[in-house]
Amino acid sequence: MLIPVILAGGIGERLRPLSTPKRPKQFLPLFSDKSLLQETMNRIAQYPAMSSPMVIGSLSHRALLDEQLMGAQATIILEPVGRNTAPAIAIAALRAMENGQDPILFVLPSDHLIQNQDIFYKAIAIACAHAEKNKLVTFGIVPHAPETGYGYIQTGERCEDAYVIKRFVEKPPQQLAEQYLAQGGYYWNSGMFLFRASIVLHAIEMHAPDIYKICREALKNSRREASHIYLDETLFAACKKESIDYAVMEKTTDAVIVPLDAGWSDVGSWHVLWSLMRKNHNGYVKLAALFSRNIMRRLKKELQ
């Protein structure tokens, strides 16, 4: 069983003022009439082995989640406060194992773009084979430029059709990013992961026991209502903010990276958004018609 876990709690700070705390970018229709969240849902639904998804989002966005996930048969886990990816993944793994099963979880952000789905699906299949061997898998984006806005992952020895992770690298300055690109063996950190629920949960318990304990209690004391799970506010708010990279992936010896070159983007800035949009002969994009004059002035300023 392969369960997608879609992380939809982001606040979209880098695309302000188009993206706002009340309606961040995952809920916006940037490339079609569907939002990034809905496009993510459609993308994973077309992979034949996927089960019904878990979507982890903010309690403050419940109405948006309900509206955009209508008919999706998703379990919606509502966080009273954002606590980064390690607690979210701990909650997802605990929830997945409640009925005595131990599925593989495919964790992915709700607001990224994948342009080549066939390559994407092949990478998922490769990652599943490694997860079956109890590996913690992340996906590394093949770099095409010395980007300074992404974290990097350096690879070690080859492990069949993946690589052992040597180290995670924070967002580098330009000169260092150019060095990584020239040297090879470095990939952009995609923020996507795939692993068996019990394996990642054991790793969280080992490397971040406080997060494990608090998340276990927050889920145990959650309120359940139809397809919604409301995490206990007091307990979950006491959990520290920590990424799964820092909490587990940088510390474990069981992590591997699967390269991915499928037209990925995190749509993380106005420049990136502009570069991805289809433009007419006058240099305009269809989406511009949806912007207010104030937003268009901000966009012009950002692109200068």
How would you describe this protein?
This protein has helices at residues 36-45, 62-68, 85-96, 117-131, 174-183, 197-207, 209-220, 233-237, 244-249, 270-276, 293-303, and strands at residues 2-8, 54-58, 75-79, 104-109, 113-114, 136-141, 152-159, 162-169, 186-196, 223-225, 228-230, 255-260, 264-265. With 304 residues, the chain is of the alpha/beta class. It has 2 domains: 2-144 and 189-268, Alpha-Beta Complex (Spore Coat Polysaccharide Biosynthesis Protein SpsA, Chain A); 269-304, no CATH class. The strands form 2 sheets. The protein has a 5-stranded mixed barrel. Strands 5-13 form a two-stranded antiparallel sheet. A hairpin with a 2-residue loop joins strand 7 and strand 8 (162-169). The model has no long low-confidence stretch (mean pLDDT 91).
Please name the defining characteristics of this protein:
304 residues, globular, alpha/beta, Spore Coat Polysaccharide Biosynthesis Protein SpsA, Chain A, 13 strands, two-stranded antiparallel sheet, 11 helices
Topology:
Blueprint: E1 2-8, H1 36-45, E2 54-58, H2 62-68, E3 75-79, H3 85-96, E4 104-109, E5 113-114, H4 117-131, E6 136-141, E7 152-159, E8 162-169, H5 174-183, E9 186-196, H6 197-207, H7 209-220, E10 223-225, E11 228-230, H8 233-237, H9 244-249, E12 255-260, E13 264-265, H10 270-276, H11 293-303
Parallel strand pairs: 1-2, 1-4, 2-3, 3-11, 6-12
Antiparallel strand pairs: 4-9, 5-13, 6-9, 7-8, 7-9, 8-12, 10-11
Helix pairs in contact: 3-6, 3-7, 6-7
